[in-house]
Amino acid sequence: MNDFLNILPEVQDALDAGRAVVALESTIVAHGMPYPQNLETAQQLEAIVRDGGAVPATVAVVNGKLQVGCSDSDLEALATQPGVLKVSRRDLPLALARRTLGATTVSGTLIGCELAGIRVFATGGIGGVHRGVDQTWDISADIPELAKSSVAVVSAGAKSILDLSKTLEALETAGVTVVGFDTDEFPSFFTPKSGLKAPHRVNNTEEMAIAMRAKWSLGLEGGFLIANPIPIEFSADPKQVQQAIDEGLAQAHAQGITGKDLTPFLLRFVNEKTEGKSLQANRALVQHNVRLGTAVAVDFARISA
Ligand code: PSU
Ligand code: MN
Q1: CATH topology classification for 5-304
Q2: Domain extent listing, the chain
Q3: What are the pLDDT digits (tens) for 174-228?
Q4: Is the CB of 140 under 6 A from ligand 1?
Q5: What is the pLDDT of residues 240-266, one digit of tens each?
Q6: What's the whole-model pTM score?
Q7: H or E stretch covering 247
Q8: Distance (Å, whole) CA 148 – CA 111
Q9: What separation in angstroms does the CA of 22 have from each of 14, 68, 142, 273, 293?
Q10: What is the rounded distance in angstroms from the CA atom of residue 281 to the CA atom of residue 240?
Q11: Ligand 1 within 6 A of 146 CB?
Q12: Do strands 102-104 and 152-155 pair parallel, antiparallel, or not at all (unpaired)?
C-alpha cells in the first residue's frame, strides 16, 4: 500500500471481489452546500448506494492520505470544519504533505478512483469551460482529468455558470464519451434542457455498462460523462436560476473573485439568491445521479465478472 493512499477495507474488499463500488466527491460536501444539508446529503448518498447493492466510497484528503472511502467522522469533519481545502490535481501534493483536511473536486476524486480501480463515480455537476474564458483562461481541471481517467461520471450536466457549448467542445477534444441518459439533450443541472444536443443517447444501464467495457477492453483510457437530467418535478425555475447566475457572475467580477474560489462563490450566491430552492433541486438531482450511478456500477460489475 502506498504511504499517501488509504483505501477503506470495506471498499478494497468489494473491489477485490469484483462487487460494485460507487465513488462520491467531497467538494460538494465542504463547498457545494451549507451545513447541515451538506452532511445530511452526504449520508443519504451513501445510503442510496448501499440500498442499490453497491459500496460507497467518498474520496477526500484526510491526515496526509488520499482517502478512498470516508468514515462517518471524516464526513462530519468535511461538512463542519471551516477552511477545508478544495483539492484538484495540482493541490493534492501540498494537501498531503501538510496533512490538510481536503475536499476533492471531480478531478481530485477521479484520481482516487483511478488509483483504487473504481469505475463509476456519481456527483452533481462537473466543472468545465467558464464563461468569459477568452479573458480568464478558466477551464476546470475536471476536463483533462476526465480525459485520462477510465471512470464513468454521472452528473446532471453542468451549470450555466459555465459556457456549456464550449464545455462540450472541450470534452470532445479530450475524447470523453458524453452520453445523455434517456435524453437527446445535454441537461443544464437545475433544468433538464440546455438547447444543446448530447453527442449520444443511451436509454438503459446495461447498454451503458457494455459501452464502458468496450472502451476499456480496447485499452482506450479516459472517461465517460453520463448526463442525467434532473427529474422535471424537482427542476428549478430556469429564469430565476439564470438571473441568480448572471448576478453572481457580475458580483464575482466586481469583487475580483477568480480561480478556484469562483465556483464555490457562485454556488453559494445562487443558493442564497434563490432562497434555498436551488439547494433543494441540487439535493434531489444528486440523489437521482447516485441512484443511476449505482445501477450502472451493478450492471458493470455483472457483465465484467
Ligand atoms: N459545479 C457544481 N457543483 C459543484 C462543483 C461544480 O454544480 O459542487 C464542484 C465540483 O467539485 C467540481 C468543482 O469538480 O466544483 C469544479 O471547480 P472548478 O470550477 O474550480 O474547477
Ligand atoms: Mn478554474
Answers
A1: Indigoidine synthase fold (3.40.1790)
A2: 5-304
A3: 999 999 999 999 999 999 999 999 999 999 999 999 999 999 999 999 999 999 9
A4: yes
A5: 999 999 999 999 999 999 999 999 999
A6: 0.98
A7: helix 238-254
A8: 10
A9: 11, 11, 18, 32, 7
A10: 13
A11: no
A12: unpaired
